[in-house]
Amino acid sequence: MNTAIVGINWGDEGKGRMVDLISEDFDVVVRYQGGGNAGHTVINEFGKFALHLLPSGIFRKGVVSVIGNGVAADPESLLNEIRYVRDKGVSVTPDNLKISARASLLLPWHKALDCLEEQRLADKKYGSTKQGIAPFYSDKYQKKTVLAGELFDEKAFFEHLESIMEWKNLTLEKVYGAAPTTLDSLREWYDTYCVPLMPFIGDLDDFYDDCKELGKNIMFEAQLGSLRDIDYGIHPYTTSSSTIAAYAPIGAGCPHMKLDEIIGVVKAYSTCVGEGPFVSEWFGEEADKLREAGGEYGAKTGRPRRVGSFDVVATRYGVKVQGATAVALTKMDVLSYMDKIPVCTKYIVNGSRTEKFPFPSLLNSAKPYTEYLPGWGVDISGVRKFEDLPKAAQDYVLYIEKQIGCYIKYVSVGPERDSIIIR
Ligand code: GDP
After folding, report:
1. How far, in Å, CA of 210 to CA of 180, rounded?
2. Ligand 1, atom 18: nearest CA belongs to which residue?
3. Which residues are catalytic?
4. Which among 408, 361, 358, 418 has a CA at the least distance from the CA of 384?
5. Model-level pTM greater than 0.85?
6. What fold, for 265-422?
7. How confident is the model over 54-112, as pLDDT tens digits?
8. How far is CA 34 from the centre of its chain?
9. Does domain 108-197 have CATH number 1.10.300.10?
10. Predicted local distance difference test score (pLDDT) of residue 299
């Protein structure tokens, strides 16, 4: 069984907790795109974790976690994260963590360039997490990165790296007026962060062949969501990689494999980190209340997330581009304080109502059309069966299911592993 767990909205939908829950049934969990800009929160017997690069399967005994070729492999972040989970008693060895030799390395200048460009853009900035993701992917597609597998031939690695450094220093110095990168600093970076990672790096081809032959279950874990996809998201407020399920086998390193199941994760309300259109956004006191109730602060940056009503229009679109076969609706418990629950069911674009997600440039002027559903007014975090939910909560789930056109298989009522209703 090959299953992808993907985000349906702007990211932060609770994918990490869903992967942590479902990974019990899987042998392999793969991250296939994105990089250290993700912030998957997982709470389990080891404690509470914000994972950025490591697959959320890392906590499960017997599960192999893989970082695929589509990921921005940042040696510094990876090594720090391995140490962070090891410190809490989690075992991380070359047997349960594999990094593709074909993954490009995120290089020291990528983070610097990300910060410099956001500074230059000033009030027009994209709201980058400054992890170097956009400079990394643009360099990857210019073929100006080095592959993880190149680390094994130190001499050739440094020759390649030096030639890229000379090119990159032109941008640092002449475009941004910043200090150039030195070869000494690259050597230090190599010794400190790359060398300790080498035991984890290898060719994944045989590994996937074995998985296929032995009928292993593979889970593909995405970062961010449909609306941040480089091709199908809200351009230009997207990330620089493909967040959709169709890319999963490519970014994982097994383009010959097919997905059997695609689980789209979405919150029972909307949140968005960073800039760009967010049609159902709330402001003021109501927004503060929801933000507090949901603890909506970025796992990576700690910055307050923008919050709003569940957005049927964006979610229906998100489900479609992902090709989701089932949905996980998370954070239902957070809505318990509301008397009535606003849901954005349509957009008003150029004076007309529409249920279709508009072309990105039209989103700037789109306004929400809001309908209200009854609240349930009681704590539901202890509920484990759908039929035990208050009628209004059941109706909310069924209403959303109908609107987005996809079966809601999971309803999450708390951040802990077992706070889940499986239908
Ligand atoms: P991801 O990036 O999609 O994995 O999402 P994040 O981890 O950034 O955000 C989800 C946040 O919501 C985390 O703090 C989770 O612990 C928390 N969370 C996930 N599901 C639930 C839920 O059903 N209820 C509550 N109260 N919190 C949840």
Report:
1. 45
2. 415
3. 12, 40
4. 418
5. yes
6. Adenylosuccinate Synthetase; Chain A, domain 3 (3.90.170)
7. 998 899 889 999 999 999 999 999 999 999 999 999 999 999 999 999 999 999 999 99
8. 7
9. yes
10. 67
Residue 322 DSSP code: H
What CATH class has 2-101+203-263? Answer: alpha beta
Q: Residue 344 corresponds to which tokens in the numbers above?
A: 């954005």
Q: Are 100 and 67 in contact (CB under 8 A)?
A: yes
Taking alpha carbons only, the member of 16, 68, 10 closest to residue 229 is 10
Could you tell me which residues come within 8 angstroms of residue 310 by beta carbon, excluding any fewer than 6 positions away? Answer: 267, 268, 269, 270, 280, 341, 343, 344, 400
Mutate to test the pocket of ligand 1, among 5, 17, 223, 421 (most ligand atoms within 8 A of CB): 17
Ligand 1 proximity of 12 Cβ (cutoff 6 Å): yes
The domains of the chain are located at: 2-101+203-263, 108-197, 265-422
pLDDT-derived band of residue 20, with 50, 70 and 90 as boundaries? confident
Percent of the chain with pLDDT over 70: 100
∠ CA 51-57-63, rounded to 5°: 150
Model confidence over 152-202: pLDDT tens digits?
Answer: 999 999 999 999 999 999 999 999 999 999 999 999 999 999 999 999 999
Going from the Cα of 195 to the center of ligand 1, the distance in angstroms, rounded, reads 34
For the CA of 332, the closest atom of ligand 1 is 23
Q: Which of 347, 325, 327 is nearest to 281 (CA)?
A: 347
Whether the domain at 108-197 and the domain at 265-422 fall into the same CATH topology: no
Strand partners, 48: 43
